[in-house]
Specification:
37% of the residues lie in helices and 2% in strands. With 175 residues, it is an all-alpha fold. The N and C termini lie far apart (84 Å).
Length: 175
């Protein structure tokens, strides 16, 4: 495969710096950079792929391709440091893309796909296979580090009665 610039590298600049061009947020700049990298990946794919023919399988291929540029040590099951959050010594286990980075990347690419004319119902970044892959990466990385990823639970809104105050509408009127 052809080598592409790393996502997040400074090799892509966002247009001219004239005063008429609005300054993009960090998120928008990153989303544009990610989109350009993905479109370039499709263009250099053998055989080249059009966006219309891109599927969840191609997205998974792209994510696996990006793994080679990862910076997160993920211990293999045979490693003596498997399951330890802070290993005491170096080991030969591979560097991979962190789950959080992949999850954020997919979120940005999913939004960029639709902003660039893609149909939300056929968005390959929202494919079931991609969601399953991300869940498996999250779980395997958590297991390798000995850390569990618990889904955050929403806080239930507290009522005034639970806080020790009577509800405002419980005041009686008249005798």
């Amino acid at each position: 495969m052809v080598s592409l610039p790393l996502l997040g590298s400074s090799s892509f600049t966002s247009g001219s710096s004239s005063s008429s061009t609005p300054t993009l947020s960090r998120y928008e700049t990153q989303k544009r950079r990610d989109w350009v990298s993905f479109v370039e990946y499709l263009r250099t794919h053998r055989p080249p792929l059009s966006l219309a023919h891109c599927s969840g399988a191609h997205v998974l291929e792209f994510l696996r391709y990006l793994d080679q540029f990862g910076k997160t040590k993920v211990h293999n099951e045979g490693c003596p440091f498997f399951g330890q959050p802070n290993p005491p010594a170096p080991c030969p286990c591979p560097l991979r893309q962190a789950w959080g980075s992949l999850d954020a990347l997919i979120g940005r690419l999913r939004a960029a796909y639709e902003e660039n004319g893609g149909n939300p119902e056929t968005n390959p970044f929202g494919a079931r296979a991609v969601r399953i892959f991300l869940r498996e990466v999250r779980d395997s990385q958590a297991k390798a580090r000995g850390i569990s990823y618990e889904k955050r639970k929403r806080k239930k809104p507290t009522t005034t009665m639970e806080q020790g105050h009577p509800k405002p509408h419980s005041v009686k009127q008249g005798p």
